Automatic annotation (TrEMBL):
GO terms for molecular function: ATP binding. This is ABC transporter ATP-binding protein. It comes from Cohnella cellulosilytica. The keyword Nucleotide-binding applies. Keywords: ATP-binding, Nucleotide-binding, Transport. Residues 6-236 form the ABC transporter domain. The lineage of its organism: Bacteria, Bacillati, Bacillota, Bacilli, Bacillales. The keyword ATP-binding applies.
């Protein structure tokens, strides 16, 4: 078996005495699409924030492509992140939002232009390049957020409930679109959701989280047909 591309070992995090991540281990292969599925408050966002460097774990190891990323500033980690609420810059156009990270990293204008064109095509928003976020639908805003996070060619993409604020129809079409883009780029991805249908339809592998633990992981088929605990069964909708 290949060495894993993203390796988390014994990640721990407490907030004010309460344990939010309790020795989380997670190994992800390059190009894999892994979903963290679990109830609100189980630690999903905290785990992503630790990987992205938005918060530091109290203990544990984090390796990305063999590089130890613990303690590095977010910009040096080569991690892209998309949040539930779109978090676009309201005063920048679609183009400006996608270009932002490239500008921050000192890419020259020609390079920024070429990359932005590529990304606008990837998320199919060429005709909206000059629009401001407020004029876009929720689904379009999330496609911009996705393009923006991919602009700097991250090694891993973290998607924190990117579909949860969208209405049902858009949510379904974006599921497919995200997966197509992820496959096209062979992008190693952690997708967070509390929606089991999303997890079942999108994932190579699902990790069920509860109370700061990964309680079971496996393919969608395995988790659905062979849940090890009642909690997993309930969460996977294996029985009604
Ligand atoms: P999830 O994304 O699974 O809903 P979170 O990772 O956001 O869960 O939160 C897990 C727990 O950690 C919750 O009980 C939450 O209140 C707590 N928590 C998260 N961030 C902070 C913080 N910055 N300060 C204090 N408590 C926090
Ligand atoms: Mg969350």
């Amino acid at each position: 078996m290949n060495a894993s591309y993203l390796e988390l070992q014994g990640i721990r995090k407490t907030f004010g005495g309460s344990t939010v991540l309790d020795n989380v281990d997670l190994s992800i292969q390059e190009g894999e699409f892994v979903t963290l599925l679990g109830p609100s408050g189980c630690g999903k966002s905290t785990l992503l924030r630790c990987i992205a460097g938005l918060t530091e774990p109290d203990g544990g190891r984090m390796l990305l492509g063999r590089k130890d990323i613990a303690g590095l500033p977010p910009r040096s980690r080569e991690v892209g992140m998309v949040f539930q609420s779109y978090a676009l810059f309201p005063n920048l156009t679609v183009y400006g939002n996608i270009e932002y990270g490239l500008k921050m990293r000192g890419a020259d204008k020609a390079e920024r232009h070429a990359r932005c064109e590529e990304l606008l095509a990837l998320v199919d928003l060429q005709e909206k390049r000059d629009a401001y976020p407020a004029r876009l639908s929720g689904g379009q805003q999330q496609r911009v957020a996705l393009a923006r996070s991919l602009a700097v060619r991250p090694k891993v993409l973290l998607l924190d409930e990117p579909l949860s604020a969208l209405d049902a129809k858009i949510r379904k079409s974006l599921r497919t679109e995200i997966r197509e883009i992820q496959r096209k780029l062979n992008m190693t991805t952690i997708f967070v959701t509390h929606d089991q249908e999303e997890a079942l339809t999108m994932s190579d592998r699902i990790c069920i989280m509860n109370n700061g633990h990964i309680v079971q992981e496996g393919t969608p088929e395995t988790l659905y047909s062979r849940p090890r605990t009642e909690f997993v069964a309930r969460f996977m909708g294996s029985y009604n």
